[in-house]
## 1
Amino acid sequence: MDDKINAALEALFIDEDKYGQYVLGFRNSDGVLYRKINVDGLNAFVGANEGMPKHGFTNEVKDMSKTVQGCDAIFSYVGK
């Protein structure tokens, strides 16, 4: 799973920033939120929301003004 996540983030030019204001979460195939990364800036956050679906991920957080389990977005891999 990490390979898919890392490849998608790299393709989208989204870098992890441990002090970033937006938290992206990732669920594994068992539905467990197992990884969180911080990204800095609205461009990175919007880029993830728009780009991750092109790499087979879906975001379960539909309201971008709310957090779920401490994340601004939670992605699950559903395949391409």
## 2
Amino acid sequence: MSASSAAPRVARFYTSARRHPWVLGKVADFKIPLGPYTPAQIAVAAVGGLLLVETVTWWSWLGPLPLAAWVVAIWVVRRPKFAGRAPLPAVVGWLILLAQPAAGRIGGRAARDRVPRQIFGGFVIEDLPTEAMPASRPATPTASPARRLQSAACRLPQTSLRSASPAQRLVAQAAARHIEGSRP
């Protein structure tokens, strides 16, 4: 059998359950009057009904206005969307966000700053060798900068460049270049 004579494959998707919201009060052909109801409607009806029964002495002088507001509230929460989300998952998301630690989580545990503690240590300042000690400054403050640099180069310790630190090598090279550049 060749590939061209094979029957084409047909794929079918049954997504009707995803197109309808989760509702209560619909079984086969039977529906609750004015229903079916969403979980948000049932929650508003239960909490609002309990609130109205407990506070009847406060609102009874208003007549049927609070009852009408309760029925309208039940109808309003039928299919609300806040930023594309149903209200119950949105509220749960906000509560979870508020319950998170301020510093976040690392590996599922609350991230915390470590307790500060003092670190003990020390260092030693060694005396400079006597030949590395600079000579006294010239008494005349009007000496030219080239002259000052030349005298500073003369005061540098005469160590081999291999044993000197990188900073000492740079200073020695700069002094040598300056001295060579100032000679006639």
## 3
Amino acid sequence: MNSLAWLAGCLVALSLPASAGNPFGAAEVQDEELAQLRGRYVMPGRIIHFGVTMSSIWENSAGQTIGAGVTFQLDEQAQPSLHITQLTPQGEGQGSGGAVIPGNGQVVGGAGLTGVQGISQSVRSAGDFNDGLNNLEIVVTRSADTPTQAADAAPWSGQTGFTGAAGEVLVSTRNGGLQIQLDAGAQGNALQQIGGGNITQQANFSGSLNTARNLATLSVALRDLPLGQDLANCTLEQLRALRPGGY
């Protein structure tokens, strides 16, 4: 009896493919197979909103600010909208009237940071007591309501720039995506861009006592499933169709 059990075990082991030799081990999945996963876990009609929001703002040592934001939205009818917001209204952001500490530092190198495929975030400082933040957030919600535009947002009409006491900011398109370039003169600069297979956020300080914020949000709003619709079974059916041969 023991001999038969041992022989059966050997035959089963030899009949398994190499990838299944260890049923609890990891199995490699090819890129082509991963590409089939896109969109498989969201039922048709469930996405009611998709949006991208970027904002960049700079404040110098005198409290003077300059910044801009851009918002792209796509509703369930696939109707896109693109709006720009000046984050420093006219007459504001001029600070307390104090003198700006001169910037004499120099940030060198870093040219390859804008060529990264994926996400690149960097804060580099050649001054003292600077504060830089790069943040990317992905938000998935279940709601029947779609976000509304800010009251002071202006529809996109092409490349747009704003100028203030702290510097200037330019919102433009790049590689099929969006870009915000912020120039604070001798105090430094900031960059934020999305598109072309990458997301880049940079803050470079050449002065002191500056604050820079690059914020980006990718948002998706899903419609709740009707009562009685079994999402788990739908997902299992999609997984079963993904790889008929098994692992």
